[in-house]
Structure to design on (406 residues):
């Protein structure tokens, strides 16, 4: 018995198979119908949709066979996925590759085999749509063509199934996100409405000191709403592919200075020191607008979770061909389980700041998407009561190729 060699793209082929999340799933009518049609057209007692896994072939649909899977070493389909066209064995008992195969010498007594590879749009062969007979057999041209056509329908069903799964996941995430977002978005607007109504009714008689307090509260609520809506807009543009990506050499020292200027009032309100320790002339290769959004979210986050008299330090060190930027604070810190949730929209979390500042956690999700879009990595090191250090990497050298859109 000749065991089929592994495909040249075996690792990528297996990754593609797993992407469809179909192994060991229940029977589905769409696939059952296709093997029934294949068996009828090719006039064979057995027809299978066989998916070739790492060590086995597993049958998504089958007619005329009780077994749900067999070892990959025995599988005719392991040979078939090495070919682009239908792989045909007219009489396995007379074929030196199969004559002593247990599937030939014993049940199900294979003699004839024809397998059309299931080829994805990116050229990966997941398995086959195959027909089997216990007698020597041949295929007529129309049967050969029909088997190929049906194999393409199997792949189409796989793609439709994957798309439906992705849509369910996207809709579930969207529903959860907007439910939570609507809750947090109401908070600053409730403050705005409440205080503006109070001013409307009593501004003429209110003491100047009280008016100043109300104005400060209105400013905080407006800032929170503005940050939230800005992050929502940027994140939505990322999801819809509308975020323009135009990387260029950016002076990181100046970029940090602009962000510090933007949040100087919020920092002053908590007596938080903003310390830019990026060496003059340090350059990163990044989209300026995305970099500004990234730094803004991290600096605002540091201020948000800093106690009065705290400090935000931004520093940068070369790391190979990249720059490793760190935004560190001496704030409240966070537990390990919170750190694990921080960058995932699926594990949304919202925590008020030390002065009651609201947020959705969307800013950290946006930071991850920006950094990964630049080919970098982002993470956090934190301890409760000792502060947090957010770090991310960006290319330090200007590249020739430029992507215009996401």
């Amino acid at each position: 018995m000749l065991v089929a060699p592994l495909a040249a793209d075996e690792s990528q082929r297996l990754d593609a198979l797993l992407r469809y999340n179909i192994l060991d799933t229940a029977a589905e009518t769409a696939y059952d119908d296709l093997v029934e049609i294949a068996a009828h057209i090719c006039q064979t007692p057995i027809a299978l949709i066989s998916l070739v896994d790492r060590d086995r072939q597993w049958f998504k649909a089958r007619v005329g066979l009780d077994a749900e899977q067999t070892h990959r070493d025995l599988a005719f389909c392991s040979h078939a996925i090495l070919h682009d066209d239908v792989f045909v064995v007219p009489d396995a008992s007379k074929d030196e590759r199969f004559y002593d195969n247990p599937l030939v010498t014993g049940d199900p007594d294979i003699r004839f085999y024809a397998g059309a590879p299931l080829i994805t749009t990116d050229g990966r062969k997941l398995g086959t749509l195959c027909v089997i007979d216990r007698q020597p057999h041949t295929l007529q041209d129309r049967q050969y063509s029909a088997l190929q056509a049906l194999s393409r329908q199997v792949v189409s069903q796989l793609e439709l199934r994957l798309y439906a799964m992705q849509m369910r996941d996207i809709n579930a995430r969207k529903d959860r996100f907007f439910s939570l977002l609507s809750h947090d978005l109401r908070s600053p607007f409730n403050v705005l409405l409440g205080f503006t109504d109070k001013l409307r009714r009593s501004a003429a008689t209110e003491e100047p000191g009280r008016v100043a307090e109300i104005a400060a509260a209105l400013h905080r609520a407006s800032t929170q709403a503005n940050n939230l809506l800005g992050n929502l807009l940027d994140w939505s543009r990322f999801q819809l592919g509308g975020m323009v990506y135009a990387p260029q050499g950016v002076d990181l020292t100046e970029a940090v200075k602009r962000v510090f200027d933007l949040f100087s009032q919020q920092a002053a309100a908590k007596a938080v020191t903003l310390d830019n320790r990026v060496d003059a002339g340090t350059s990163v290769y990044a989209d300026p607008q995305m970099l500004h959004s990234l730094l803004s979210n991290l600096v605002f986050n540091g201020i948000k979770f800093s106690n009065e008299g705290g400090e935000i330090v931004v520093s940068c060190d070369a790391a190979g061909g990249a720059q490793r930027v760190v935004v560190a604070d001496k704030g409240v810190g966070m537990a390990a389980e919170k750190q694990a949730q921080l960058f995932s929209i699926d594990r949304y979390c919202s925590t008020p700041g030390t002065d009651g500042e609201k947020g959705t956690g969307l800013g950290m999700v946006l930071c991850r998407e920006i950094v990964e879009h630049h080919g970098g990595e982002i993470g956090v090191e934190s301890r409760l009561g000792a502060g947090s250090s957010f770090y991310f990497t960006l290319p330090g050298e200007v590249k020739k190729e430029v992507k215009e859109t996401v």
